[in-house]
Each structure stands twice: as C-alpha cells, then as structure tokens.
Amino acid sequence: MEEDQEAVNLAADWADISQGLRKDLGHQVHSQWIRPIQPGNYCKETGTLDLYLPTEFSANWVNDRFADRLSLAWKIARPDVRHVRILVHPGRRQLPELRLGGGGRPSSAPANDSAQGSSDPLSAALAGESFASLGQGPAGIDASQTFASFVTGTANVLAFNAAQRMAATEKPQFSPLYLKAATGQGKTHLLHAIGHAYLANHPHARIFYCSAERFMVEFVQALRQNQMIEFKARLRGFDLLLVDDIQFIIGKASAQEELLYTIDALLAEGKRLVFAADRAPQALDGVEPRLLSRLSMGLVADILPADIELRRSILENRLQRFASIEVPADVIEFLARTINRNVRELVGGLNKLIAYAQLTGQEVSLQLAEEQLTDILSANRRRITIDEIQRTVCQFYRIDRTEMSSKRRARAVVRPRQVAMYLAKVLTPRSYPEIGRKFGGRDHSTVIHAVRLIEELRTRDADMDGDVRSLLRQLES
C-alpha cells in the first residue's frame, strides 16, 4: 500500500515537473524526449530516483542534454531527492541495430522506442516477429492509444473513419492520408492507432513512425556520415510510413526532396503513408510544389476542435480509468464547458484534479476544481460579458433588450431574464451583486433565486435544458 502511494506521489510530481519543462523547452523537444520518461524506483535511504526511458539511444540523449535540468527540477519538487539516474527501462527489450540485407532491404529490426511518439526513427521496424510479443509495440507505437480508446464525435468522425480504412486489411482507396488538426485534438493518437491496428492485421509488417523533426535529424546525420544509401534503403523498406508534425520539415530543400522520392517509391509499391500536421498542405510555407501535391493527393481529413458534447464524452470515457473516484456531474459539466481549447488540456485538467484529490484525501468538487485548475481555466476562458449574454438571450427569446432591466413580471419576460442571470453566473466571474446591478439594480438575492431556479428546471424540463444548451453553444462559439 505504501509503495502504491509512493508511486502515485511520484507520478503526480512528475506531471507537474513535465508540464514546467514543456514550457521551458517547447512542445516539440518535450514531446520528443521528456514526455516518454517514466519515474521508476526511488530509494529513500540514498535519495536516488531512477527515471526510465524506452531505449538506450533515448536514455543517452536525455542524459547528455537534460540530466542537470531534470535533477534540479526534482530537487525543487521533492527536497528528499538527492540523485537522479537516467536509465533504460529494465522491461524493455534491446534489439540489434538495423543493417542492410540482401536486395537493399532491412534484414533485421532495431529497438523499439517511446510509447509517446518519441521514437528513434532508425529504431522503427520489427520484421518477422508478431506485434503481440512486445508490450509497448514496435516503432514507438503506444499500445494504449488505439481506435477503441479514441472517443468520436462530429468533429473527428471523418478522420477516425479514414484512419481505420488506412489500417484495414484491404488496400485503402486513398494514400497518403493527411490528418490536419490543431495541437491537442487527437491527430497523434490516430497515428498511433493506425500503427497499432495495422500491425494487428499485418503481424510481420515493418512500420516507420517519427516526427518530421526526427526525420530531419536522421537525414542530416546520414548526410554527414555518407550513409545516404543506407538511409534511403531503410526508409523505402517499410510497409507503413507515419510522420507527425510535418510542418516542421518546411524550408529544408534537401530533406523535402528525399521525402518526395520516398513517397513516390512507397506509393509505387502500394505501401501506405500517413502524415499529420497542424495546418492544411496548402498552408505549409516553403514547401516545394511537387511535395505539396504528394501530400494532398490522397485524403486531407480535418479534426475540428471538440464541441462540448464530445468534450463531455471524452471526460466520461477517461473517468472509467478511475473507478474508485467519484466525480460529480457538475464538475464534469464545468470542465467540459470551460476547458475548450484542446482535448489534451481537458484530460490533463481532469488528471490533475483527481491526483490532487487522491493525494490530499479531499473529495472532488466544483470548488476544488476552480481552486486547483486556475491556470488551465484562465487560459481557456473567453471573455464573455453580461451585455453579450443579455443581447444573445433577447435575440433567442425575441424580446426587447430593455426587458433585461425592466420591472415587468410577465412570464414571457421573467423567464428569459432569469436564464440570462444564470448564464451570467456560469460564464462570467461576476459576483451576485454585480450581476444584479446589470439587471436593473436588482438585489443579489434575486440573482441567487434565478440561478437556483434555472439549475432546477434544467434537471426536470427538457425544453429549458435544451434552451440553455443552445445559448451556451452560441455564447461559447
């Protein structure tokens, strides 16, 4: 029990440290090298903490460049940590480096890498072994990021269905598939899911997963070491090519040319290609027209920002992992409504809230969420004014704007006014007295009564709940 609690404490501390390093190092470096780190054994007597990475390559890279930074961050978070060791995860299997075999095709496969998409691109394929034999999956594919764990809605159903087709046994109707989405909307999850499902359907297939930045690093290294023939042979020996954050390859003429030839070679052999980026192919600056045409010749599938229904579904799905934790419905509604920039922040907010509740022994509540998620909430809140709420409500119910401040008590006027007061409390940081002043100088008790009444009506009146949901969508869009 004590060991389990210590593991929870380490995980919670690492979540905070990792978030801070992401701000310092940037998303790309963090995603590539920091995010795959897992806290391991901790010896209280010596104050030594082990941090695990999936391969020797990544462990050496992080140890050379970030050891001091990681050590300092842990000492600040936990003064009892005096030493930090960066090691290869003891459960990871080490495979030999890739070497060229007969016919210019890979004859053996390299080690697997991170389960979070930070794989060494030269450690990508596993020929001749079944996917099920490896716990984390080859090529750095995260076995937890599957199609089954991907929550769908109107915002992402096209991309989801297209990704499933790409991983299916039968030949896809389109290739390459280009997934376009803003940060944190699920495109990397779909890349992992494609790799996972494809290897399940083709156990002996060779796949290549990397970010565009890692592609650039390996390309430059091969160029400097006169190993371009080997580099090209490795690339063109794969059955499935998955490249994330393709926008980072812009402006690199020689790398673009090599990627162009690789795409042509793989397509000519009927291989499958998937790219992901935060913008459409036509919006990529500095990309050679020929490469641009290859990227957009298949299917460009958008993943739109998750609407509130999808955000609710994602939170409810995530809660299934925390069966022992009770999260009230009003907290889920609050998170889904407030954290609307991207799915990653939404899930991160829920994880942080639950971790804090577990570590402090408090119950999850709306007040706790507001207190502990202030940074996330403030970054996501759009400044909605009471004037904007009144104007939207009046248009919705087709009443004159002056009725918001009038003394009339006709039901056709009172109910919209109460709805506007409720929305003002939900969507703005204004106090009850401040809201009352914006509604003709009404007393704060009137506002409290209106808020409680609308909350009650929403639970038993489907029409009222539908009206409020519609107004919330309008105001938050």
Helix-strand blueprint:
Layout lengths: L1 H24 L1 H8 L3 E6 L4 E6 L2 H22 L5 E6 L68 H11 L9 E5 L5 H15 L5 E5 H13 L3 H8 L4 E5 L8 H16 L3 E6 L11 H7 L3 E5 L4 H12 L9 H10 L4 H18 L5 H7 L1 H7 L5 H12 L13 H17 L4 H7 L5 H17 L1 H15 L1
Parallel strand pairs: 2-3, 4-7, 4-8, 5-6, 6-7
Antiparallel strand pairs: 1-2
Family: Belongs to the DnaA family.
InterPro entries: AAA+_ATPase, Chromosome_initiator_DnaA, Chromosome_initiator_DnaA-like, Chromosome_initiator_DnaA_CS, DnaA_C, DnaA_dom, DnaA_N_dom, DnaA_N_sf
Protein name: Chromosomal replication initiator protein DnaA
Describe this structure in words.
There is one protein chain. By secondary structure, the chain is α/β, with parallel strands linked by helices. The chain has three domains: 1-90, GMP Synthetase, Chain A, domain 3 (2-Layer Sandwich), CATH 3.30.300; 102-303, Rossmann fold (3-Layer(aba) Sandwich); 386-476, DnaA protein, C-terminal DNA-binding domain (Chromosomal Replication Initiator Protein Dnaa, Chain: A, Orthogonal Bundle). The protein has 19 helices and eight strands. It has helices at residues 2-25, 27-34, 56-77, 157-167, 187-201, 212-224, 228-235, 253-268, 289-295, 308-319, 329-338, 343-360, 366-372, 374-380, 386-397, 411-427, 432-438, 444-460, 462-476, and strands at 38-43, 48-53, 83-88, 177-181, 207-211, 240-244, 272-277, 299-303. It has a five-stranded parallel β-sheet, with helices on both faces. The chain has a three-stranded mixed β-sheet with strand order 1-2-3. Residues 1-108 are annotated as: Domain I, interacts with DnaA modulators. It is found in: Cytoplasm. Residues 109-121 have a biased composition (Polar residues).
